[in-house]
């Protein structure tokens, strides 16, 4: 079985873009592309794969109903798949132990973990509030890589 070190190596080699798959109510799969990275869970400090999504995204609606996902990174002929349960932490997704300032700081950390940079963090923070962003924190239960 692969480890998160294998995932980190793929991210380092090919970037943060990955496919995230969630489950619709009928059991079918919905997939989209996100930028994700390795981060620490804000309460446990454990490793998570993390990305942010706006309140209007379909994947967020599905994750609220069924909090499991799979992320697949593929920079070249190698790939890594990570599946697990997700925690949602955002302006419309309160999480016990994380206040509004904690959400702001977490969104920044997830953004940078996913390879993002910003010249004006106050502007970034305003955009995150306007978009009602949520951090999606996948707690890995299975990691496969090839």
List the helices and strands and how they pair.
Elements: H1 4-14, E1 17-23, E2 29-35, E3 37-40, E4 47-53, H2 58-65, E5 68-73, E6 80-90, H3 100-113, H4 121-130, E7 134-145
Antiparallel strand pairs: 1-2, 1-5, 3-4, 4-7, 5-6, 6-7
Describe this structure in words.
This protein has helices at about 5-15, 60-65, 100-115, 120-130, and strands spanning about 15-25, 30-35, 35-40, 45-55, 70-75, 80-90, 135-145. It has 4 helices and 7 strands. The mean pLDDT is about 95. The protein is globular, with a radius of gyration of 15 Å. It has a 7-stranded antiparallel beta sheet with strand order 2-1-5-6-7-4-3. The chain has a single domain, classed as Roll (Pnp Oxidase, Chain A), CATH 2.30.110.10. Strand 5 (about 70-75) and strand 6 form a beta hairpin. It has about 150 residues and is an alpha+beta fold.
Q: Can you give me a brief rundown of this structure?
A:
This protein is an alpha+beta fold. The chain is built from four helices and seven strands; from the N terminus they run αββββαββααβ.
Features:
146 residues, alpha+beta, Pnp Oxidase, Chain A, seven-stranded antiparallel sheet, 37% strand
Give the H and E element order: HEEEEHEEHHE
CATH class: Mainly Beta
Helix/strand class: alpha+beta
How is the main sheet built?
7 strands, antiparallel
Q: What number is the mean pLDDT?
A: 96
Instruction: Determine the fraction of residues in helical runs and give it as a percent range.
Output: 25-40%
Strand content: 35-45%
CATH level 4 superfamily: Electron Transport, Fmn-binding Protein, Chain A
Q: How many individual helices? A: 4
How many DSSP E strands? 7
CATH architecture: Roll
As for the number of domains, it is 1
* CATH topology annotation: Pnp Oxidase, Chain A
Radius of gyration: 15 Å
Basic shape: globular
How many angstroms does the end-to-end distance come to?
A: 10 Å
Strand order of the largest sheet: 2-1-5-6-7-4-3
């Amino acid at each position: 079985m692969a480890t998160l070190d294998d995932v980190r190596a793929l991210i380092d080699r090919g970037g943060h873009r990955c496919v995230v798959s969630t489950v619709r109510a009928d059991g079918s799969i919905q997939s989209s592309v996100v930028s994700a990275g390795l981060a620490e869970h804000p309460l446990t400090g454990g490793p998570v794969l993390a990305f942010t999504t706006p309140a209007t995204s379909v994947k967020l609606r599905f994750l609220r109903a069924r909090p499991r996902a799979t992320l697949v990174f593929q920079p070249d002929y190698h790939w890594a798949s990570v599946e697990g349960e997700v925690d949602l932490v955002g302006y419309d997704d309160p999480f016990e132990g994380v206040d509004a300032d904690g959400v702001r700081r977490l969104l920044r950390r997830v953004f940078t973990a996913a390879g993002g940079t910003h010249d004006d963090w106050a502007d970034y923070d305003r955009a995150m509030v306007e978009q009602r962003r949520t951090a999606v924190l996948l707690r890995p239960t299975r990691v496969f890589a090839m």
